[in-house]
Amino acid sequence: MVMIEIHGANKKKAALAQEAALFTFNYLMPRLRKQVDVEIIFTDIDGACGYQAEIGEREFEIELDKGLTGDDLLTAIFHEVTHCVQDLRGTKTGWELPYYERPFEIEAYAMQEEILKKWQKEVDF
Questions:
Q1: Closest CA relative to residue 21, chosen from 121, 122, 112
Q2: Separation CA 24–CA 20 (nearest Å)
Q3: pLDDT one-digit tens code per residue, 20-60
Q4: SS3 68
Q5: Are 64 and 48 spatial neighbours (Cβ–Cβ below 8 Å)?
Q6: Which residues does 2 contact at the CB level (< 8 Å), separation at least 6?
Q7: Do 50 and 72 form a contact (C-beta atoms < 8 A)?
Q8: Does pTM surpass 0.90?
Q9: CA atoms of 89 and 102, how far apart (whole Å)
Q10: Residues 6+ apart with CB under 8 A from 63
């Protein structure tokens, strides 16, 4: 079960963000049974689309640039939720490597595109 709170977005963007985040969790962890709490905050971010942090046991915060729209918004959500799943699985390693060589970033960039294709086939939001 995933509980999501959205802050800093209008109703339409908040609904899209919630649907996209839930879609990603269901895609990557279809048998998820224990509760996961995610707070998504839309704010001004310079130099990135978003950030993700594990703030407690099974608790995450995702910051997204409030200017994101369309596929850019969706892929940012898919990317950051992938990081939440990596934390839940304990597979987010390789911090000492340059950003684009970190295995968890390579996976997140690949998953954001894979999930976008699946979303476009299955969801008419």
A1: 112
A2: 6
A3: 999 999 999 999 999 999 999 999 998 889 999 999 999 99
A4: coil
A5: no
A6: 21, 22, 25, 32, 35, 36, 37, 38
A7: no
A8: yes
A9: 16
A10: 40, 41, 42, 43, 45, 50, 51, 52
Asked whether 77 and 24 are in contact (CB, 8 A), the reply is yes
75, 111 Cβ separation under 8 angstroms? no
SS3 113: helix
In this prediction, residue 124 carries a pLDDT of: 67
Band of residue 74 on the pLDDT scale cut at 50, 70, 90: very high
Cα-to-chain-centroid distance, residue 72: 12
Alpha-carbon distance 79 to 73, whole Å? 10
Q: What proportion of the chain, given as a percentage, has pLDDT over 70?
A: 98
Q: What is the rounded CA–CA span in Å between residue 84 and residue 70?
A: 22
